Amino acid sequence: MDTIASLFSFITTPVSWVIVQFHSLYGMIFGPDTGWAWGLSIVSLVVLIRICLIPLFVKQIKSTRNMQVLQPKMKAIQERYKNDKQRQSEEMMKLYKETGTNPLSSCLPILAQSPFFFALYHVLSSIASGKTIGVIDQRLLDSARQAHIFGAPLAAKFLDSSEKVASLNASLTDVRIVTAIMIILMSASQFYTQRQLMTKNVDLTVKTPYMQQQKMLMYIFPVIFAVTGVNFPVGVLVYWLTTNVWTMGQQMYVINQNPTPGSKAQDQYLQRLLKAITTRGEVRSRRKRSVVQAIVAKGPDRNDNERKFIVSLGKAGLAAQPDGTVIKSDTAAAEAEASASAKRQQPKRQTKAQRQSAGSQSGTDRASSGGSEQGGAGSTEAKPSLRKQEEPQDSPSQPAAKPAGGATRQKAKSGQRKGQQRPKHPSKK
Question: Do the beta carbons of residue 22 and residue 41 sit within 8 Å?
């Protein structure tokens, strides 16, 4: 790990300088040798880095959403050119170029933050070993080694021996309790951030492999933090816990204010926007007007959440305009009511007993209607048929009816004869 961290030694001097500047500020408030001064210096370093990474975070959000939209097209390309990897790569790059999507943009914040992480780890490791680094001289080194956060030194680790912890003027129990709590909080914050992204800010109508990958990462990342966290010094755990909490808060803000189209978060956001518009009768903020303008511009390509929003505006007597404003309109209300009434209603599914009873009832109705029609056509035709059924079949007064041609052919094929049989010749008996 020290070898990897030494690769980022070019940035250890700026990182140590920033920590020293924040330490001089907080040292005047809490004291230069306290854990609060050094701990808040690390927290302030995280905040400063994350503020600088906000533009990259915005690019990450756009890239992630573009990747979600492109997943069906990417899958179609993979299926079409599954035997030609070169053509598949060319088509993928062409798709990225046409849509302006960069797959690496989703990793930019992590890649940009990693040098600071390794530099801070190298600085704290040098403090633990009693070596000066960057702008941290011997005086600041002694002050940092005396700083404790809830009884745990900044340079102590969960797996450190009792002798090493004792050299830092601390107990092994305090170090392990503090580090265990911080590792649990770090893993829990990472899991909650990823789960919030998957449950609220994803279009569930589109099932893509990308969603399955994100779901796997939701469980893999907390495990990685839990396993690797035992090797991090307390100061690095403070850094990583702070950046996880920042990410969680930043993600909550994005989900509430700029949700993914078609997601559950967008439905909740549009419901809040609808309530504000119907209460005030207008769209006040510029950002909200841009949201309404984008929905109107989509036209028939709106998703279910956006269509419901437009219909609800119409029911309230308001019509959204292309510039993002709303006006009162009785026509919009009438159209909303008409579209709601014309919406196809699915019939209620009946049970098997209900279907059987309905079938028997319809059969009874057809039989009764057929009988009434026959009776109405002529009652004299129904009576002879009844008399024929009542008379015996061997009555000599009633001749046998001539069978139909189809029936005669069928009996002839089976070898049967109609009528009286002739007696056989005596020679043929």
Answer: yes
